[in-house]
Design a protein that fits this description.
alpha/beta, Adenylosuccinate Synthetase, Chain A, domain 3, ten-stranded mixed β-sheet, four-stranded mixed β-sheet, 13 helices, 20% strand, globular, binds inosinic acid
Length: 428
């Protein structure tokens, strides 16, 4: 029975909610396996709008078990803040499971994220400032705090002392900030212990048992392929594995159990933060995409950088993730353009390069080679069958499919949940 991985194919904000909605009631578990509250999605249920950053979207669906797995970094304050916001609106959040092995984002991670970015100046990553990088750095450095540590005060104190030892020197001597007291951090974390205890589980065991029992499990990746710490545009990436491989390490479910890998890809491209983005537009076309697509960050409110569709990026995502289906989103945003350029390859210092270059310098120099497609003017937001799309819109989708390395199984044609054209069932 299906274990489905859902990831972003570009630099994030592809609109994964569209694909989640499509799977809807067929899913029993929704698992967040990487990242933390750097993500942001707005979910609309009925006439209610919910902004989630940390909680998996499944929290809003009755009967679904939402899981925060071991690969996630958890800001516990944010966790309870989001849970309280939902309970105050009458939602039952009691099904949530949190991995005992997930790492915790503390006050010192948030502080370090912000001061480091400031220190980097022009070289900054443009992080969300939520402490994600410093928390993962501690995990890899083996000085992280895990959820399970919160239930043993002695261990917790020792670990926080160990982590703050060097960090306080850095904060005081390099960044000229005040030292952070061990007690302050320990007491803050302990204050959540009683509320946290009932949610904490061996989520790897739970998920494997669920799959054994024939349940459908959706693994929802935060961020996206080009922000993956191994496969993205390093160092302008997030600090976790946002690609499909991360679903295995980040959850304790083995790679050979995954049946489908669905990648969400926008009909154009956006990016927040710094780093290479070959098809980025600095003219009125970029403004057109930003305004029509409402491209402003859910987490930070920053205007997103906008550009044309990049086929080598989609192909790269298909390869790295083993994509079985693409969900193409926001096709309607392109309505009204006379022609739509698509990047089919790059010119790197006078040489045509068909795939994403492995060298960072080459990628910085990559100039897109465009092929132009004729646009359409008809409103497509009400279209529900592929054949009913304007001929030029159909041709655009088929051209992208040919270039992008996997079938395009569904197409988002408007902001409403129902505004989607399905070409192939995502689970078969
Ligand atoms: P961090 O994840 O806060 O460390 O930020 C690292 C990079 O990833 C920055 O460029 C962020 O803008 C970007 N990023 C993090 N989360 C998201 C997301 O959910 N959507 C898009 N970009 C993101």
């Amino acid at each position: 029975m299906p274990a489905i991985v859902l990831i972003g194919a570009q630099w994030g904000d592809e609109g994964k909610g569209k694909a989640t909605d499509l799977l809807g009631s067929r899913v029993d578990y929704v698992v967040k396996f990487n990242g933390g509250n750097n993500a942001g999605h707005t979910v609309v249920v009925g006439d209610q709008k919910y902004a989630l950053h940390l909680l998996p979207s499944g929290i809003l669906t009755e009967g679904v078990v939402p899981v925060i797995a071991n690969g996630v970094v958890v800001d516990i304050e944010v966790l309870f803040h989001e849970l309280e916001a939902l309970t105050s609106r009458g939602l039952d959040v009691s099904r949530l499971l949190v991995s005992a092995n997930a790492h915790v984002i503390t006050q010192y991670h948030r502080t370090l994220d912000k001061v480091t970015e400031r220190f980097l100046g022009k070289r900054q990553i443009g992080t969300t400032g939520r402490g994600i990088g410093p928390a993962y750095a501690d995990k890899i450095n083996r000085v992280g705090i895990r959820i399970q540590d919160i239930f043993d005060e002695n261990i917790l104190r020792q670990k926080v002392e160990g982590a703050l030892d060097i960090k306080n020197h850095i904060l005081v001597k390099i960044y000229n900030r005040r030292a952070i007291a061990v007690d302050e951090v320990v007491e803050d974390l302990l204050s959540y212990a009683d509320r946290l205890r009932p949610m904490v589980a061996d989520t790897g065991l739970e998920l494997n048992r669920a799959l054994d029992a024939g349940k459908t499990v959706l693994f929802e990746g935060g961020q996206a392929t080009m922000l993956d710490v191994d496969h993205g545009t390093y160092p302008f990436v997030t600090s976790s594995n946002a690609t499909s491989g991360g679903a295995a390490t980040g959850s304790g479910v083995a790679p050979n159990r995954f049946d489908r890998v669905i990648a969400v890809v926008k009909a154009y491209t956006t990016r927040v933060g710094s780093g290479p983005f070959p098809t980025e537009l600095f003219d009125e076309s970029g403004e057109f995409l930003r305004a029509n697509g409402f491209e402003f960050g859910t987490t930070t409110g920053r205007p997103r950088r906008c550009g044309w569709y990049d086929a080598p990026v989609a192909r790269y995502a298909a390869r790295i993730n083993g994509v079985t289906d693409f969900v193409l989103t926001k096709l309607d945003v392109l309505t009204g353009l006379a022609t739509i350029p698509v990047c089919v390859a790059y010119d790197v210092d006078g040489v045509r390069v068909d795939e994403v270059p492995v060298s960072q310098s080459d990628y910085h120099h990559a100039v897109p080679i465009y092929e132009e497609f004729p646009g359409w003017t008809e409103d497509i937001t009400g279209v529900r069958a592929f054949e009913d799309l304007p001929a030029n819109a159909q041709a655009y989708v088929l051209a992208l499919e040919k270039m992008s390395g996997s079938r395009i199984s569904a197409i988002g044609v408007g902001p409403d949940r129902e505004a989607i054209v399905v070409r192939h069932d995502l689970l078969t």
